[in-house]
Amino acid sequence: MKNTTILDAKGLACPMPIVRTKKAIDSLESGEILEVHVTDKGSLADIPAWASAGGHEITEQTEEAGVFVFRIKKA
Amino acid sequence: MVVIKWTAADVARRVINDDKLFILDVRNKEAFEDWKIEGRQFNYLNIPYFELLDGIEEVLPQIPSDRELLVVCAKEGSSIMIAKMLDEAGREAAYLEGGMKSWSIYLEPIKIGDLTGGGELYQFVRLGKGCLSYMVVADGEAAVIDAVRFTDVFLDFAKEKNVKITYVFDTHLHADHISGGRQIAAATGAAYYLPPKDAEEIVFDCEDLTDGLKVQIGSANVTIEALYSPGHTIGSTSFIIDDRYLLTGDILFIDSIGRPDLAGLAEDWVGDLRQTLYERYRELIDDLIVLPAHFMIVEELNADGQVAKRLGDLFAENHGLNIENEEEFRRTVTDNLPPQPNAYQQIRQVNMGKLKPSYDEQTEMEIGPNRCAVR
After folding, report:
1. Which residues in chain A touch residue B29, judged by CB atoms under 8 angstroms apart?
2. Which residue of A has its CA nearest to B31?
3. Contact B50 A13 (CB under 8 A)
4. Do A18 and B49 touch (CB under 8 A)?
5. Residue B349 pLDDT more than 80?
6. Is residue B21 pLDDT above 70, yes or no?
7. What is the pLDDT of residue B266?
8. Does B353 touch chain A (CB under 8 A)?
9. Residues B289, B291, B292, B295: is their CA dihedral positive or negative?
10. Pick from B127, B273, B300, B363: CA 20 to 30 A from residue B13's CA?
11. pTM tops 0.80
12. What letters, b where the CB count within 10 A reaches 16 and e where it falls short, cover B51-62?
C-alpha cells in the first residue's frame, strides 16, 4: 500500500508512544497511513482514544508476540 | 524548577486529613469515570494527556490557584510530562509517583484501639481499592485477618511491633482482591485458616475456620472468636475480637451490605445473607464496633481515617439492615447490582491457588474499585 509510514515505538513507555505518534501524524498529509508498532499496554487504550479525539481513523489493529500494530489514517 | 513528586502515602495523608486538593487526572475518560482518587475535599479535572500535547495554556484557567495541584495518570510517565508543562507555565504542580498503580497498592495502618492486657488492634486501609485488613497484636503474638497481597507491609509491621504472627485468617474466599494470607502464613510458620465451605476447590492445605472457633493471642487473654455468617459467600465468617469488635468481612459494611453474586450463586445465597444480617447479627450486643473488610466511598471514613461504627448505629442507619419486606430485600441484592469487580473470577482462582499470575498480572487484575457491596 502506498504512502504508509512506519513508526517503531516498541519498548517506549507512556507517554512516549503517543508523543511520537502525534509527531509522526503531524508530518503526514490527510489520508496517509501511519503504522505504529508499540509494546506498551497502556497504548492499547490510549492510541484509539487519541485517534478518536483527533478524528483520525484506525483502519486496522493487530497483535503479534506482544507487539501491537495500529494502522492510522490521518484525518 | 524540579517537578514535585508525591508518594501514595502523601496523598493518603491528605485524604485522611480532609485537605483541599485539586487533581488533574490525565488518564482516559473511561478510566477516570471508572475509578479515581477519592477525597472529601478534592476537586477534579479530567483531560487525557494526549489532548494536552500542544500545550496546557487552554486548561490553565480551569485550575484553581488557591489549592495544591496534583497530576495523576496510570503509571506516572504522562503525569510527569504534564506537571513539567504546568511548571514551565508558572504553576506549581506535583505528580503521583507510580500513578494509579501505586495508589491501588498503598496501605495506611491506623490504630483502632487498645485491647485487654496491653493488646492493640490495627486496621490497614487500602485507600485506592477500599480494602481493609486487620492485625491483632497482644503479648508478643499477632493475628492477621483479610490480608491483602502486599505481605511485606504486614511482616514489617509485625517486626516493628516485635511480635510473631501466629494466626492468619481470611473471612472468606475473596473475589475482589488477591489474598496475602497464605504467603504470610508460609513466611511466618503461622496457621492459615479459611472457612471450609469456601475452601472446597483450593489446592493447598489450610485449617478449618469453623463457627465458634476461639483462639487466644498471647497470654493476654485477647480472644478471637469465629461466627459463621454466610451470605456474601457460603463460607463467610465473622470475628468477634476481645468481646468488643465485630469483623464482618464482606457481609456488612458501614453504608451498605455484601452482595451475594460474586461466586455466581446470588439466588441461592440471598436467604443466607438475610438470615445473617437480620437474625445472627441481631443477637449480638449493640455496642460491638463493626469493622468491615471494605469501604466503598470515602465518606465512610471517620475523622481519623478509621472505617468503624457501632453495630447499634448500623442497625438504625444502614439501609441494608432496614428492609423489612423479605421480597424487597431479595430484589435489592439480586437485581440492579453494580458491575462486578475487575477480573473477579480469575481473582477467585488465584485465591484458590489454581492460578499463579506474576506481580504485574496481579496488579492488572486488581485495578479499579472493589464493588463488593449493594447499597
Report:
1. 49
2. A45
3. no
4. yes
5. yes
6. yes
7. 66
8. no
9. positive
10. B363
11. yes
12. ebbeebeebeee
Q: What is the number of alpha carbons within 13 Å of residue B58 lying toward its C-beta?
A: 6
- Tell me the mean pLDDT in the region B163-171: 97
Instruction: Quick: pLDDT tens for B248-277.
Output: 999 999 998 988 877 666 677 889 999 999
Q: Do the chains contact at B28 and A19, CB–CB below 8 Å?
A: no
- Residues of B with active-site annotation: 73
CA angle B262, B263, B264 (to 5 degrees): 90
In chain A, which stretches have pLDDT less than 70? 1-2
ipTM of this complex prediction, to 2 decimal places: 0.89
- Contact status of A49 with chain B (Cβ, < 8 Å): yes
The beta-carbon contacts of A2-6 under 8 Å, at least 24 apart in sequence, are A3/A29, A3/A31, A3/A32, A3/A33, A4/A32, A4/A33, A4/A34, A4/A35, A4/A71, A5/A32, A5/A33, A5/A34, A5/A35, A6/A34, A6/A35, A6/A37
B335 in A contact zone (CB under 8 Å): no
Put simply, the answer to whether A15 touches B31 (Cβ < 8 Å) is: no
**How many residues belong to chain A?**
75
* Residues B204-256 pLDDT 10s: 999 999 999 999 998 878 999 999 999 989 999 999 999 999 999 999 999 98
Q: What is the overall mean pLDDT for chain B?
A: 92
Catalytic positions of A are 14
Closest-CA distance, B76 to chain A, in angstroms, reads 8
Cβ contact (<8 Å) for B74 and A16? no
Q: Which of B15, B290, B48, B8 is nearest to A45 (CA)?
A: B48
